[in-house]
Every structure is written in C-alpha cells, then in structure tokens.
Design brief:
The protein is α+β, with helices and mostly antiparallel strands and about 190 residues long. It contains six helices and seven strands, in the order H-H-E-H-E-H-E-H-E-E-E-E-H. The strands form two sheets. A four-stranded antiparallel sheet has the order 1-2-4-3, with helices on both faces. The chain has a three-stranded mixed sheet with strand order 5-7-6, with no helix packed on it. A hairpin with a 5-residue loop joins strand 6 and strand 7. Helix 2 crosses helix 4.
Length: about 190
C-alpha cells in the first residue's frame, strides 16, 4: 500500500452536501460500500446492522423530504434540484440482534464514506432525519429495525476546504459568496492531552 494513502482518503472524505445529481452512484456501487461495512468490527460480533439502499430517482426524491441538511446553516434548506444526492444508504439496527449499536454505526459509516471517496464519490453522514416518515417511505418495519444513520451519497459538486479554528474558538462550518464550504479543524497540538 502506498504511504499516506489512508491519510489522503481521510483528507478527501469531507461532508459534501451538493452533488451532480444526474451522475448516479447506482445500486452496484452502494452494494460494494455495504460489503466493506460488513467486514468491519462489530460490538460482541453481533453484526446487528442492516442496510437499506436507495438509488432510484423516485425513492431518492421521497427520502430527500425527510432530511435536515446543515445545522450550522439555518437559512439553507439543502441542495437544490439537480444538486441532490443520487443515492443513500440507511443504516439500521436489527433489534432482534442487538440494540444501541452507535459505535458500530460510526465504524461502518466512516468505512463506507472512505470507500465512496476511493470510488470518486462523496457524501454526508446525517443523523437529523424524520425516522418514522423515512421508515414508511422505505417500507422498514420499526418494530424490528431502528433507523440510526443516513449516508447521502453522490458525485460531489462543491469544494470543501479545511481551515484552522478561528482565534475566538468558533468551530461552526460556513460558506462564502462562491458557495465554498469551510470546515474549521483544531490543530494536532490542540487535540493532544
């Protein structure tokens, strides 16, 4: 493996919220990302997570209506038509196999996001969505499955830039007039104890 390969993947794995909607990610790519996720570690090896793929234009449009897009950008309702995700992976927990697998959600979500970057795609992990409405749209039985996390995926249409945290300590992401998305990051010295 090439030195620095993982670091480059992580550096390029940003939270993208605008996409080339017509450049479809497709079912096969989504399945390959889930295949990566199923290989990750799992609490007590329960392997309780299940995944619902969303890739048709019709289902993508319906699921889009359930999503809260950017908490730090309160005046932005999410991407416009033509800039929306071309696919989603809904991470669910099979409640018969385990409960409260939030560590597993994080491990599998990041693994799939890194896999998406490697394939030339990008996305955003979203916990702010209307779970009951999404379950109804996607035909997911909430007695058996909790809807835990949503990955919005596609070909990124925006530039996301990491910048140092401002002197006042503000870590909120923001956009400029050109719609470049800036993400303040603490320095290595700031995170080491």
């Amino acid at each position: 493996m090439e030195a620095g390969c993982v670091k480059k993947l992580v550096e390029n794995c940003r939270s993208y919220r605008r996409f080339f909607e017509n450049d479809r990610i497709g079912e096969e790519n989504l399945k390959e990302l889930v295949d990566l996720a199923r290989l990750t570690a799992s609490t007590a090896n329960s392997q309780a997570l299940k995944y619902r793929l969303v890739f048709t234009e019709e289902e993508c449009e319906k699921l889009f209506s359930c999503i809260g897009w950017a908490g730090a950008l309160p005046d932005w309702d999410g991407p416009e038509k033509g800039e929306r995700p071309s696919g989603y992976i809904v991470i669910c927990c099979d409640l018969r196999l385990g409960k409260n697998k939030m560590w597993d959600n994080g491990i599998t979500a990041q693994t799939m996001m890194l896999g998406a970057v490697e394939k030339g795609f990008g996305g955003c992990m979203i916990a702010s969505f209307k779970r009951e409405k999404a379950a109804e749209i996607l035909g997911i039985d909430q007695e058996k499955y909790s809807l835990d996390l949503l990955l919005a995926l596609g070909k990124p249409k925006e530039k996301v830039v990491m910048v140092p945290v401002r002197e006042d300590g503000d870590i909120r992401y923001y956009r400029d007039e050109e719609q470049v998305h800036y993400v303040p990051k603490r320095s290595l010295e700031d995170v080491l104890l």
